[in-house]
């Protein structure tokens, strides 16, 4: 009897499981470099009317956000709220593609990831902002000019047909150097924006996940992006105002950053740096939320197509 049991036991097959191989997570491929630019373009298209109002408040004599929007609708119709949208697209497809790509590459360069300290993420954001601010400067000029054009008296309007027409006319009428107009304040603002927006989103997202109250889902992305938008608006307001005023000016009026600061300080006081903060916040807040929520969903779509979900 015991012999029979022994024989049947030895006959049982033994399966050896390689636990190390089973436990090893599948390494994800990098996401396409242009994904952030697509997300930013979608977001900017939705919030374009608020961005248009912000620029006109900063560059013209308009005082209130709602009144400025009413003035636009009254003079140009509802479609007037989409003035200069081709400039917005050109700007996003140059500046935003560059900044998201450069941010990821900068994090690799300095050995940072989403769980790194805030200063390390801010350093990567600053590096990305410096590169993207320079690359995207022509698109930024065209966006600001096209958005603010209709608010000017008819004799002072530039009347660009679209962003490409504006680009060629700038080069032909003002020379190649016009593409670098306001590049200093723009690069400075881009450094502040990416150090505060991209870095703070990664920081807040990591902190929310560590708290145990959030999972990596749309609720976490919404909360982190809301906090990042508020931080970015406040940090970037002074450079944003200067950039808008310099880029919307033509001729010698907008060539000196220090001259613009002195004139604005003399006429309006130090608080001119935060003029348009509310419309900037109401524009940047939903834009920031839309950018990161859309980006996370696009990443999820890429994961799905790759079979990583």
Helical fraction equals over 70%
Q: How many H/I helical runs?
A: 13
**Mind summarizing the main beta sheet?**
none
**How many β-strand runs?**
0
Portion in strands: under 5%
Order of helical and strand elements? HHHHHHHHHHHHH
Question: What is the rounded Rg?
Answer: 25 Å
Shape: globular
End-to-end C-alpha gap: 53 Å
Give the integer mean of the pLDDT values: 83
Which residues sit in consecutive blocks of at least 5 with pLDDT less than 50?
A: 14-23
Give the structural class.
mainly alpha
Q: Which features characterize this protein?
A:
single chain; about 300 residues; 13 helices; about 70% helix; globular
Describe the structure.
This protein is an all-alpha fold and 309 residues long. It is built from 13 helices and no strands. The chain has helices at residues 2-11, 19-23, 35-46, 48-59, 65-76, 85-110, 118-135, 137-148, 163-174, 183-211, 218-248, 257-268, 277-306. It is globular, with a radius of gyration of 25 Å. The N and C termini lie far apart (53 Å). The relative contact order is 0.13. Mean pLDDT is 83; it is low at 14-23.
